[in-house]
Amino acid sequence: MASSTLGTFSVALLSSTYPSSSSNHSFQSLSLTSGRKLYGGIGICRIKGTSQFSVASVATEVNSVQQAQKIAAKESQRPVYPFPAIVGQDEMKLCLLLNVIDPKIGGVMIMGDRGTGKSTTVRSLVDLLPEIMVVAGDPYNSDPEDPEFMGIEVRERVLKGESLQVVLSKINMVDLPLGATEDRVCGTIDIEKALTEGVKAFEPGLLAKANRGILYVDEVNLLDDHLVDVLLDSAASGWNTVEREGISISHPARFILIGSGNPEEGELRPQLLDRFGMHAQVGTVRDAELRVKIVEERARFDKNPKEFRDSYKAEQEKLQTQISSARSSLSSVQIDQDLKVKISKVCAELNVDGLRGDIVTNRAAKALAALKGRDKVIAEDIATVIPNCLRHRLRKDPLESIDSGVLVIEKFYEVFS
């Protein structure tokens, strides 16, 4: 795929990267023998003794320029704390990893005390996100192979039989600020252009950018009600529809919703809480030695972020490989019928409303098995994920002092024994 993409884009990239013949860029000459060779997916006839300049060498050079630009852009970004360097908080980290492996789990709600590394952990996930195929230049990150993840324009092009230019792009992580306006989140329609030119001029918002990616809301329990309604609508349908002055525009908006917050600052609306696939509880680390380690690691990072990130590079790459392998093997992971029945029995006996709890538990258990390199789910996998999948779906008893996660585990052992 990479080679064919390179061949498709050789000319376009050349015109954008090297705008004039007076450019100072020098092209690497390739010593080629006579005959026909494949470069970038294109067969090039080459006669010995002719000019060294060729489409293949341009494609190779442009590709290296692209790589250099990517590296430069990455280095100029604000340094992100490496995921493997986060001490403790295993429950939160596992929930995040499982959602990266299987986005259909439905996201994570992280609730915990102030200063426990919730935002840091979520943002550190950026480096671990794998690459996906997207249609070049499409604002909705359309999937070239799945119509469900295609924007309307891309779908029309496919129906007309047009060929799509495909590129590899890293999964997006979009931050939703608490003070964002509805127009910024959903996108806006240029009414003046629509009336004067008769075209649907749409400016995509954050939901468009988050399609096939991650939408992160910090302090989600403080989010304005009108934005909560927008998120609920998009999360339920997978599409965002903007209606303005008789003009209607829709685009795909399927994203992993990750929220974090402090329970002391208010509860989340039950409708939104139910939309999160998993719920992770984060507590303050009480062990003195662990606290010292966290402080020291943070001090090292603040002093020299690049050196600190380099010290965790090997662990980071190992985790990236593990995630990539788990994503590719996920479809082959099986779960026995007996285990499925027991999961549903736990949900039924805990009076969990709806069937989302059953679905998410099955998905999360499969993702965990894939992460551990197995092709079959075992009871231990279910025991690990079921508290996170059901904890926030239990009916609240104001007089109950016991943690709902403990209730789930007790019921699990009762059923599975």
Essential attributes:
5-stranded parallel sheet, 417 residues, 13 strands, single chain, two-stranded antiparallel ribbon, alpha/beta, disordered N terminus
Order of helices and strands: HEEHHEHEHEEHEHEHEHEEEHEHHHHHHH
Regions with little confidence, pLDDT below 50 for 5+ residues: 1-63
Using only C-alpha atoms, the radius of gyration works out to 25 Å
Beta-strand segment tally: 13
Distance between the termini: 49 Å
The mean pLDDT is: 79
- What is the topology, as strand order, of the major beta sheet? 6-9-12-3-13
Number of helices: 17
Category from helices, strands and their pairing: alpha/beta
Please give the share of residues in helix.
40-55%
Global outline? globular
Q: Describe the biggest sheet?
A: 5 strands, parallel
Tell me the β content.
5-15%
Walk me through what this model shows.
Helix 1 crosses helix 2 and helix 14 (337-349) packs across helix 15 (356-371). The chain is an alpha/beta fold and 417 residues long. 46% of the residues lie in helices and 15% in strands. It has 17 helices and 13 strands. The strands form 5 sheets. Strands 6-9-12-3-13 form a 5-stranded parallel beta sheet. Strands 1-2 form a two-stranded antiparallel sheet. A two-stranded antiparallel sheet has the order 4-5.
Quick rundown:
With 417 residues, the chain is α/β, with parallel strands linked by helices. Helix content is 46%, strand content 15%. It has helices at 2-17, 55-76, 90-101, 118-124, 152-159, 182-186, 191-197, 206-209, 225-237, 270-273, 288-303, 305-311, 313-329, 337-349, 356-371, 379-390, 404-416; strands spanning 35-39, 42-46, 108-112, 131-135, 166-170, 173-175, 187-189, 202-204, 214-218, 239-244, 247-252, 256-261, 278-282.
